[in-house]
C-alpha cells in the first residue's frame, strides 16, 4: 500500500526507562505484523546497532536510525520519509525513557523525535511490584509535555490476572488511555544479552527462533488491531521537509548524494572505485545509511570477512566497522595471511577507515584474560579490556591534524561505546588527529589514529550527520585506484 500526501502510518514504542522491555515488544509487534502480511519499516531512535539489527531481522528490511544529536532535524525527517514511502506502517523504537535527553530541556530525547515525526506514542511500562502508582507515572508523562501524543499503554512483566486488572483499571480510569496489552513475567530468555545489551543477530544461532517467539508473544498478549489503528490515525506530516519531490502519488525527499566523480577509465568503460567492507559477526556495526552513502557517492561495495577467507580481494579502499573482535580474537589472530596482507596494503597507502572494533583489529595485539592475540599490526597500539565501559555516549570531536578524510577545524558529532582500553601506545601526538570536545576517545583526550591513508577511531559517525565522510572515502579510493592504474600503465 502506497502512502499519499505524506500520510504515513506510524507508531513509536517508548518506556519510562531503559530495560523496561520496549525492544522485545517492538520486535514482536514488527514481526507479528509482517507475519500478517503488513509491509513494516522499522526505525530505531538513538545511536544503536544491535537493537536495530533485531528490528531489521523482524521486518525483513533494513532498520534506519533516527538520532537528533548525530543528524539535524531536516535530514531526520527526510530519512524517515524516504524510507517509509512504500510501506504499510512504520514502527519506531525509542531509547531509554521517553523524556531522557542530554540536557534539562530534553534535547535528543525520544519525546523530541516523537514531536518531530508527529508520531503517536505507546508506553511500555514495567509493572514489577507496582499497581496504581503506574497510573501516576503514565499521567505524569502525559502532562509533562502535552505536545507528546501518548495514545496507549502496554503492561509488561505482569504477575497475574489480579495484578493486571488493578493496573488496567487504574490507568484507564485516571489517564483515560487504553491498555493495549498485558505481557506476563516470562521465564524463558529468548534474547541473550551481553554488556552492550542484546547479543547481535549475527552471533545468535537461534535469532529467527527468537523473532518468532517475540511475534507469538505479541499475537497472544497485545491488541495488534488497536495498535494498527493508532498508527493509521497519525496526522498528516505536511510539507515541512524541504527538497520534496512527488512521483506516482508519493512525496519523498530528494537527496542528491550522487557526485560528479571522475572515474579512472578501464578500456572504454568508466569503473567505480571498489570499497571493501569487512562485515561479519566480528565486525557488524554499520549504519545502513553509511553504506548507502558510499554507493550514492559513486562507489561499488564489496563485503569481506577475515573469518571466512584468507585474502583481501582487489579493492581501492577499506571500511572496517565496530563489533566484537574480542569474541573472535582467536579466529582473527589465526588468519595470519589476511592480517599480513592488510598490513602491507596499509603500508602501500590503501585508504582504510576503521571504527572501534576496526580500530582494535588494526592494532598490534588484543590482550584478553592475560593472553595476547596478535592483530594486523598496522597501528602501534596494544588493547586490553575492562569490566566497565571505558567510553560511553555521544562524542564531539574537532579535527586538529591533517588527514585524508576531514578538513582541519571541522567539528564532527558521533558516539562511542567500548570496554576496550589502550594498554600501550607508541605513536606520536601528531598521529592523533581528533581533539575530544565531548567524550573519552582513544587516549589523552584525543582520538583518530592516523597512519598514511589509515584513520581509525573510537568515534562512530553517521553519514547523514557527517556527509564529508562518504565523499572523502570515495575521493581517496579514486586516488588510490588511479595510482595503481598509473603504475600498471
Automatic annotation (TrEMBL):
Nucleotide-binding recorded as keyword? yes
Ranges for domain CobB/CobQ-like glutamine amidotransferase come to 274-466
CobQ/CobB/MinD/ParA nucleotide binding domain spans which residues? 11-186
* Protein name (record): Cobyrinate a,c-diamide synthase
Q: What does the miscellaneous comment read?
A: The a and c carboxylates of cobyrinate are activated for nucleophilic attack via formation of a phosphorylated intermediate by ATP. CbiA catalyzes first the amidation of the c-carboxylate, and then that of the a-carboxylate.
Looking up Pfam families in the UniProt record yields: CbiA (PF01656), GATase_3 (PF07685)
The main enzyme category here is ligase
Amino acid at each position: 500500500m502506497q502512502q499519499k500526501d505524506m500520510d504515513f502510518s506510524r507508531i513509536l514504542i517508548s518506556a519510562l526507562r531503559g530495560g523496561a522491555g520496549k525492544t522485545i515488544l517492538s520486535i514482536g509487534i514488527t514481526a507479528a505484523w509482517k507475519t500478517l502480511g503488513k509491509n513494516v519499516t522499522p526505525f530505531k531512535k538513538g545511536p544503536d546497532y544491535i537493537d536495530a539489527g533485531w528490528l531489521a531481522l523482524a521486518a525483513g528490511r533494513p532498520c534506519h536510525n533516527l538520532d537528533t544529536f548525530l543528524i539535524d532535524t531536516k535530514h531526520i525527517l527526510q530519512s524517515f520519509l524516504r524510507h517509509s514511502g512504500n510501506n504499510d506502517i512504520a514502527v519506531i523504537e525509542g531509547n531509554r525513557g521517553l523524556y531522557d535527553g542530554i540536557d534539562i530541556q530534553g534535547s535528543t530525547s525520544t519525546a523530541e523525535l516523537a514531536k518531530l515525526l508527529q508520531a503517536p506514542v505507546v508506553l511500555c511500562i514495567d509493572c514489577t511490584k507496582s499497581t496504581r502508582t503506574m497510573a501516576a507515572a503514565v499521567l505524569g508523562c502525559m502532562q509533562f509535555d502535552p505536545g507528546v501524543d501518548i495514545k496507549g499503554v502496554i503492561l509488561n512483566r505482569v504477575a497475574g490476572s489480579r495484578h493486571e486488572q488493578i493496573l488496567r483499571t487504574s490507568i484507564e480510569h485516571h489517564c483515560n488511555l487504553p491498555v493495549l496489552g498485558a505481557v506476563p513475567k516470562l521465564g524463558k530468555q529468548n534474547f541473550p544479552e551481553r554488556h552492550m545489551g542484546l547479543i547481535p543477530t549475527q552471533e545468535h544461532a537461534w535469532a529467527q527462533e527468537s523473532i518468532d517467539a517475540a511475534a507469538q508473544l505479541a499475537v497472544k498478549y497485545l491488541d495488534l488491531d488497536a495498535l494498527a489503528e493508532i498508527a493509521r490515525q497519525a496526522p498528516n506530516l505536511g510539507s515541512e521537509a524541504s527538497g520534496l519531490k512527488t512521483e506516482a502519488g508519493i512525496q519523498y525527499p530528494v537527496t542528491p548524494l550522487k557526485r560528479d566523480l571522475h572515474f579512472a577509465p578501464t578500456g572504454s568503460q568508466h569503473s567505480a572505485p571498489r570499497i571493501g567492507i569487512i562485515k561479519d559477526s566480528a565486525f557488524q556495526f554499520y549504519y545502513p545509511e553509511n553504506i548507502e552513502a558510499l554507493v550514492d557517492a559513486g562507489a561499488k561495495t564489496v563485503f569481506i570477512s577475515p573469518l571466512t577467507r584468507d585474502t583481501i580481494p582487489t579493492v581501492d579502499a577499506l571500511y572496517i566497522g565496530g563489533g566484537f573482535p574480542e569474541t573472535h580474537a582467536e579466529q582473527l589472530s589465526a588468519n595470519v595471511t589476511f592480517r599480513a596482507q592488510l598490513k602491507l596494503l596499509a603500508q602501500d597507502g590503501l585508504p582504510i577507515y576503521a571504527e572501534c572494533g576496526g580500530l582494535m583489529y588494526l592494532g598490534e595485539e588484543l590482550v584478553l584474560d592475560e593472553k595476547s592475540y596478535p592483530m594486523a599490526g598496522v597501528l602501534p597500539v596494544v588493547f586490553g579490556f575492562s569490566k566497565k565501559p571505558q567510553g560511553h555516549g555521544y562524542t564531539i570531536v574537532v579535527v586538529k591534524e591533517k588527514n585524508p578524510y576531514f578538513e582541519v577545524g571541522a567539528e564532527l558529532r558521533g558516539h562511542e561505546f567500548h570496554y576496550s582500553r589502550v594498554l600501550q601506545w607508541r605513536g606520536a601526538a601528531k598521529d592523533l588527529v581528533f581533539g575530544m570536545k565531548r567524550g573519552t576517545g582513544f587516549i589523552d583526550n584525543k582520538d583518530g589514529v592516523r597512519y598514511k591513508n589509515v584513520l581509525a577511531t573510537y568515534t562512530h559517525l553517521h553519514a547523514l550527520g557527517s556527509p564529508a565522510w562518504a565523499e572523502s572515502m570515495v575521493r581517496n579510493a579514486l586516488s588510490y585506484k588511479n595510482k595503481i592504474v598509473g603504475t600498471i600503465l
